[in-house]
Design goal:
The protein is α+β, with helices and mostly antiparallel strands. Helix content is 38%, strand content 33%.
Length: 135
């Protein structure tokens, strides 16, 4: 019985650490040269900005949903006309879910470290390909 209590306490503490880490990332949205801002539109027509990792593979731009909170990803899939702020310039893009082969390639070339995966609670990872559109 004591072992079960310890396991439950460890699990609760771990979930708390993941929630705290994910919440702080969502609140502070750290940005830099390896990030970009994707602006999506929800079903009510509201635009939402999200700082995401900038991934480039073979001249193609990708974004990854690496965390449990992923409303921006669902919005991009539902309404693929997004805006991307990249290197100080905002432009329209089409968000296309990565194919299985793209996913494998981009994931293997941009693997996440074990510490990051532990802190985020091992969420599944999804990619979108961002195709430039005419303004």
């Amino acid at each position: 019985m004591k072992a079960v209590k310890i396991i439950v306490i460890v699990c609760v503490v771990y979930v708390g650490i993941v929630a705290l880490f994910e919440s702080s990332l969502a609140y502070f949205q750290p940005s830099g040269q390896s990030t970009m801002v994707v602006t999506t539109t929800d079903l009510q027509g509201n635009s939402n900005d999200r700082v995401v990792a900038r991934l480039e593979q073979g001249g193609q731009l990708y974004a990854a949903a690496n965390h449990w909170p992923r409303a921006w990803y669902r919005q991009a899939v539902a309404n693929p006309n997004v805006e991307v702020s990249l290197d100080g310039e905002k432009a329209p893009y089409l968000a296309v879910p990565a194919t299985e082969s793209e996913h494998v390639r981009v994931d293997s070339d941009n693997s996440l470290g074990l510490v990051f995966r532990i802190l985020t609670g091992f969420p599944p990872r999804y990619f979108i390909r961002l195709e430039p559109q005419q303004s």
